Amino acid sequence: MPKINGNEIRPGNILDHEGALWAAVKVDHVKPGKGGAFAQVELKNLRDGRKLNERFRSADKVERVRLDQKDQQFLFGDGEMLTFMDSETYEQIALPADILGDRRPFLQDGMTVKIEYYGEEALSVSLPQKVVCKVAETEPVVKGQTAANSFKPATLDNGVRVMIPPFVGQDEDIVVNTETFEYQERA
C-alpha cells in the first residue's frame, strides 16, 4: 500500500493508522506562528464508528488504503442480518443491519447498493442517492397555504418522517434523498 506524507491527506482518504482503518472526515492545514505546519485531521473508524482527532506533520508517513467497491443486490433481511448477492458471481453475503445506520428504512427489495471491501471484509454499504417512496400519511392541504414556500410533515411507507410541499398528497410517490432525508421531487 502506498505511503503518503501527512500534508497530503485529503477528506475521503482511507488510512491505516494505529492498526485500524480510518476515514479522513475533515482536514485543516494549520501554520502556527512558531513551529512547523501540520494537518489537523478528524478521523472516523470504519469498523466501530469511533472518532479521533490527530495531527500529522509533513514528515509523518501514513499508509493510504484503497477499498474495492462492488455492486450488490439486496435480497432479504431477517432480523439483524441483511443478505446481499454479487451481481457477477452470484455469491451471497450476510451483513449486520446496523451497517446502514439510520438509512436502513430506505433499503428496498432488489435494490442495487455499493459495498466497500477491504480484502474480504465488508466495511460499508452505500445506498443510491435518490429513492422512490410512497407518502403513507400527511395533513390535508389548507387553502391559501400553497402561495408561500412552506412544507408540511409526512410519514412515508417505510416509517421515515420528512417535510414535503403542500401540493403532495397521501398515497403519492415521491423521490427522497437518502443522505439528507429530504424531499427532492414527485416520482
Explained architecture:
It is a single chain. By secondary structure, this protein is mainly β. The chain folds into 3 domains: 3-65, SH3 type barrels (Roll); 68-126, OB fold (Dihydrolipoamide Acetyltransferase, E2P) (Beta Barrel), CATH 2.40.50; 130-186, Nucleic acid-binding proteins (OB fold (Dihydrolipoamide Acetyltransferase, E2P)). Helices cover 0% and strands 54% of the residues. It contains no helices and 16 strands. It has strands spanning 3-5, 14-17, 20-30, 38-45, 51-57, 61-65, 68-78, 81-86, 92-96, 112-118, 121-126, 130-138, 152-156, 161-164, 173-177, 182-186. The chain has a 6-stranded antiparallel sheet with strand order 1-6-2-3-4-5, with no helix packed on it. A 5-stranded antiparallel sheet has the order 9-8-7-10-11, with no helix packed on it. A 5-stranded antiparallel sheet has the order 14-13-12-15-16, with no helix packed on it. A hairpin with a 4-residue loop joins strand 15 (173-177) and strand 16 (182-186). The chain is flat, with a radius of gyration of 21 Å. The protein starts with a strand and ends with a strand.
Question: Secondary structure elements and their pairing?
Answer:
Blueprint: E1 3-5, E2 14-17, E3 20-30, E4 38-45, E5 51-57, E6 61-65, E7 68-78, E8 81-86, E9 92-96, E10 112-118, E11 121-126, E12 130-138, E13 152-156, E14 161-164, E15 173-177, E16 182-186
Care to give the gist of this entry?
The protein has 187 residues and is an all-beta fold. The chain is built from no helices and 16 strands.
Strand content: over 45%
Side by side, the strands of the main sheet go 1-6-2-3-4-5
Shape: flat
Which structural category fits the helices and strands?
Answer: mainly beta
Number of continuous helical runs: 0
Radius of gyration, in Å, reads 21 Å
Overall number of strands: 16
How many structural domains? 3
Low-confidence stretches: none
- CATH architectural arrangement of the largest domain: Roll
Kindly report how far apart the N and C termini lie: 44 Å
Helix content: under 10%
Oligomeric state of shown chains: single chain
What string, H for helix and E for strand, traces the elements in order?
EEEEEEEEEEEEEEEE
Mean pLDDT: 89
Q: What is the CATH top level name of the largest domain?
A: Mainly Beta
CATH topology of the largest domain: SH3 type barrels
| Biggest sheet details | 6 strands, antiparallel
